[in-house]
């Protein structure tokens, strides 16, 4: 039931750690903008971006920010996306040295750069992506993005040659066929034959 005068009702409706679009909260109160402003001014909820709000989780160390996945879910209004980072490539042990502050979001709805909750996201429209990140996908994603990385390709390629010999499996071949762009598949074939 709506309450015209009590922003506390809106606060109680919001689940800690969940990010809400303003439109999702219109059914809770007739004065959604006023109540949101009151709660933001009281610092009991946070405005993360235009039209995005969160009731933060309280911990012994302070307020816990929402996860990247939660921010993107609310922004895109779907669970059909994959959040990743070039920083994950370090798991492959290929000697990348840069630290990246932008998250990459593969999805079917939006493209462009957006700041959500103080974090930077680059949304890329992609025909297909896995539900979870595996080492095989990281390798394919690295090849797909090799030209975007500031590290010198010649040093990365030397490390990739060694990695290919360890990842020549059915799972990797399938991942490459599903998600590898033509340029990445060419690089992979050259690595297999020692031509890179």
Give an account of the 3D structure.
This protein is of the alpha+beta class. It folds into two domains: 7-64; 68-192, no CATH class. The protein has seven helices and nine strands. The strands form three sheets. It has a four-stranded mixed beta sheet, covered by helices on one side. A hairpin with a 2-residue loop joins strand 8 (112-116) and strand 9. The chain is elongated, with a radius of gyration of 21 Å. The model has no long low-confidence stretch (mean pLDDT 88).
Overall geometry comes to: elongated
> Can you tell me the residue ranges where pLDDT is under 50 for at least 5 consecutive residues?
none
In round numbers, the mean pLDDT is 88
| Percent of residues in β-strands | 15-25%
Q: Give the count of helical stretches.
A: 7
Q: Helical amount among residues, as a percent range?
A: 25-40%
Distance between the termini: 66 Å
Rg value = 21 Å
Structural class, judged by helices and strands?
A: alpha+beta
Strand order of the largest sheet: 6-7-9-8
Q: Count the beta strands.
A: 9
Order of helices and strands: HEHEEEEHEEEEHHHH
Total separate domains: 2
List the defining traits of the structure above:
3-stranded antiparallel β-sheet, 9 strands, elongated, 7 helices, 2 domains, single chain, 4-stranded mixed β-sheet, 196 residues, alpha+beta
Describe the SSE topology.
Blueprint: H1 7-13, E1 19-21, H2 32-41, E2 46-49, E3 52-54, E4 57-59, E5 62-64, H3 68-76, E6 81-84, E7 102-107, E8 112-116, E9 119-125, H4 135-144, H5 153-166, H6 170-179, H7 182-192
């Amino acid at each position: 039931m709506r309450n015209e005068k009590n922003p506390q009702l809106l606060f109680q409706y919001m689940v800690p750690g969940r990010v809400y679009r303003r439109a999702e909260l219109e059914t809770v109160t007739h004065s959604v903008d006023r109540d949101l402003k009151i709660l933001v001014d009281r610092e009991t909820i946070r405005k993360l971006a235009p039209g995005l709000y969160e009731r933060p989780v309280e911990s012994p160390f302070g307020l816990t920010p929402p996860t990247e996945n939660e921010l993107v879910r609310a922004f895109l209004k779907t669970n059909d996306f994959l959040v990743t980072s070039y920083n994950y490539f370090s798991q492959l042990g290929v000697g990348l040295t840069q630290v990246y502050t932008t998250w990459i979001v593969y999805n079917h709805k939006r493209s462009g750069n957006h700041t959500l909750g103080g974090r930077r996201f680059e949304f890329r429209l992609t025909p297909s992506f896995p539900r979870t990140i595996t080492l095989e996908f990281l390798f394919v994603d690295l090849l797909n993005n090799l030209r975007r990385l500031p590290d010198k390709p010649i040093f990365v390629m030397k490390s990739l040659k060694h990695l290919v010999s360890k990842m020549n499996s059915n799972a990797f071949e399938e991942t490459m066929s599903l998600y590898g762009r033509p340029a990445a598949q060419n690089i992979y074939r050259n690595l297999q034959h020692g031509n890179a």
